[in-house]
Give the backbone structure.
Amino acid sequence: MNVGANENQAATGTVNVQTFTGAIGAPAPAVENNAAADRPFSVNGATFLNEGAAIQRSCAIQKNACANAANSGQIEGGTGQCDAQEAACLASANAKVRRTIKARTSNKARALAA
């Protein structure tokens, strides 16, 4: 049975907040958010208090997997592409944070104007 993302979220109580889709060498590991946990964000079993730290770890794990693939000859192009991919992964997370802050600010402004 193929469990869709929404079904999986309901079954486990977690949601993947890692939105980066680049996959040179390997995809970025999921950043799971479980709001019921004391340390609600996790990456490959390591837990974090905030989303930003967890996404940084996810991007770093992906970079290491990419570098390992480049160094072993599994992918061509050297490790520079891995550095660029990590930068894009982190930028994607930063853009998400900026969108969230902007949305919250807009919502507060609308609430105050009402």
